[in-house]
């Protein structure tokens, strides 16, 4: 498998920091992806090696920037539908801001038989600082032969829209912000809520046969403890359940089967470590996605951007990890740098798009993309092999700042050695929760450990599945978790 380019250094593309490689999709012998923020859509005929690029100028004039930053892509018959947003033309100001008058949300279609790109739909509110809801997900409705568009990131025209894939006409179905969705049986579930502020507040289900909507509130956590800011990064379905990957863990379940959407704490830290700006794909009957270390961040400490504080977004507690979901098992299968932006499978390989740099804030725009992006090619057999060595380091003072005492959700499956080293200033009790991703959901087992002032080593090999932690009270110190 040979590409002309595996690596994409930053080039001209005015926006907030770095975008990434998004929308990886292999269909009908063609590999598609978009490089953001340069607004370059790539279409590679894998057999011949011929590569075509498109600069989004069907939307508006050059120079363009953006493209897609949420993996909005779907395939139907010979067509690849790809969406997102684009500046056309991009207007960069030297006060490190961008004018949004020319920012459009869009859906294009690539015909793999003809090798041609067409603009199916675009929309803009032509405002200097605000924009219409970006297209962050596309789901095909095979009964209505239409595309369902999820829109959360923006100031107007948010919600779930229905797009006629022949006429290019879009109509709102619900108007609450929705970043992602997934199809299960004969319904499509969508997460509803605002990312960067509160996260998922409910799930909406569209009956694809009757057209009726129902709303479901998220349920509690298997460890019985509260969760905070469950910002939604990706959704997928398997086992007739919907899985919503959020900051701090996973919601899984299906109300139509008598289950609530239960929260399973997974890789929950007092930072913006999250499965954000990445997709989730089905592989081998399970689900593969990533939890990212550094996807959105404030660059300057005095940044006034609301909702993403400097400590919260720039404290790096661990590597980005690929996780494979095969209930009741959750297994780490890859360790990467700042972030994974897109995942796809092709010819027995896994394509993993990565980036060295996060998206930044509104007052920190640059005229070029600031990241180094590449595509890593792995063998699918990593799903069956031993997991990679991974470590996490969490400053306990961040728990105090976040008002948290419960954290963790460390998946142990596949590891022969695992330990947590707590360095604390005072004696304190620690509660360890042990659970797995059982469906229907169970409850966590608990064990209390007495930590003494100084260094404490907990052998996690005596536990199984997933382990979470709860401190009795605030304490200064740190914890290092090692998985080998």
Estimated helix fraction: under 10%
Q: What is the total tally of β strands?
A: 42
Describe the global form: globular
Tell me the CATH superfamily of the largest domain. YVTN repeat-like/Quinoprotein amine dehydrogenase
Just give the CATH class of the largest domain: Mainly Beta
Q: Average pLDDT, to the nearest integer?
A: 96
Q: Spans of 5+ residues with little confidence (pLDDT < 50)?
A: none
| Content-based structural category | mainly beta
Question: Descriptors for this entry?
Answer:
484 residues; mainly beta; Methylamine Dehydrogenase, Chain H; Jelly Rolls; 2 domains; 5-stranded mixed sheet; 2 helices; 51% strand; globular; Quinoprotein_ADH-like_sf
Structural account:
This protein has 2 domains: 7-383, 7 Propeller (Methylamine Dehydrogenase, Chain H), CATH 2.130.10.10; 390-483, Jelly Rolls (Sandwich), CATH 2.60.120. The strands form 11 sheets. Strands 7, 8, 9, 12 and 13 form a 5-stranded antiparallel beta sheet that branches. A 5-stranded mixed beta sheet has the order 22-26-25-24-23, with no helix packed on it. The chain contains 2 helices and 42 strands. A hairpin with a 4-residue loop joins β14 (137-141) and β15. With 484 residues, it is mostly beta strands. This is Phosphate ABC transporter substrate-binding protein. InterPro entries: Quinoprotein_ADH-like_sf, UCP016666, WD40/YVTN_repeat-like_dom_sf.
């Amino acid at each position: 498998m040979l590409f002309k380019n595996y690596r994409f250094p930053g080039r001209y593309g005015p926006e907030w920091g770095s975008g990434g490689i998004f929308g990886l999709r292999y269909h009908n012998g063609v590999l598609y992806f978009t490089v953001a923020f340069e607004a370059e859509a790539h279409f590679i005929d894998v057999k011949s090696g011929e590569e075509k690029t498109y600069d989004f100028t069907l939307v508006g004039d050059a120079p363009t920037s953006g493209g897609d930053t949420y993996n909005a892509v779907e395939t139907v018959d010979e067509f690849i539908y790809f969406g997102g947003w684009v500046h056309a033309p991009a207007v960069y100001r030297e006060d490190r801001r961008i004018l949004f008058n020319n920012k459009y949300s869009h859906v294009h279609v690539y015909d793999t038989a003809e090798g041609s790109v067409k603009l199916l739909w675009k929309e803009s509110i032509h405002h200097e600082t605000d924009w219409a809801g970006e297209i962050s997900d596309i789901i095909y409705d095979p009964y209505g032969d239409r595309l369902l568009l999820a829109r959360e990131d923006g100031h107007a025209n948010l919600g779930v829209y229905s797009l006629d894939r022949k006429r290019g006409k879009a109509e709102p179905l619900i108007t609450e912000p929705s970043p992602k969705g997934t199809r299960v049986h004969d319904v499509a579930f969508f997460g509803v809520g605002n990312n960067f502020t509160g996260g998922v507040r409910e799930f909406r289900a569209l009956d694809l046969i009757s057209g009726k909507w129902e709303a479901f509130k998220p349920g509690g956590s298997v460890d019985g403890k509260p969760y905070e800011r469950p910002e939604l990064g990706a959704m997928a379905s398997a086992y007739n359940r919907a899985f919503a990957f959020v900051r701090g863990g996973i919601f899984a379940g299906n109300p139509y089967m008598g289950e609530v959407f239960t929260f399973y704490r997974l890789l929950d830290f007092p930072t913006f470590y999250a499965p954000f700006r990445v997709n989730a794909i089905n592989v081998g009957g399970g689900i593969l996605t990533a939890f990212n270390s550094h996807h959105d961040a404030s660059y300057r400490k005095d940044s006034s951007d609301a909702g993403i504080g400097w400590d919260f977004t720039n404290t790096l507690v661990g590597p980005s990890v690929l996780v494979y979901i095969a209930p009741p098992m959750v297994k780490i299968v890859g360790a990467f740098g700042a972030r994974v932006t897109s995942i796809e499978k092709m010819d027995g390989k896994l394509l993993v798009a990565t980036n060295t740099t996060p998206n930044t804030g509104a007052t920190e725009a640059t005229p070029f993309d600031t990241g180094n992006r590449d595509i890593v090619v792995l063998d699918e057999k990593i799903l069956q092999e031993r997991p990679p060595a991974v470590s996490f380091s969490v400053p306990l003072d961040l728990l105090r700042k976040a008002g948290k005492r419960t954290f963790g959700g460390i998946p142990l499956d596949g590891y022969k050695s695992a330990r947590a080293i707590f360095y604390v200033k005072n004696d304190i009790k620690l509660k360890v929760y042990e659970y797995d991703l059982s469906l229907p959901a169970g409850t966590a087992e608990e064990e209390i450990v007495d930590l003494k002032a100084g260094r404490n080593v907990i052998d996690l090999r005596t536990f199984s599945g997933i382990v979470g932690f709860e401190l009795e009270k605030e304490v200064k110190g740190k914890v290092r978790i090692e998985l080998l």
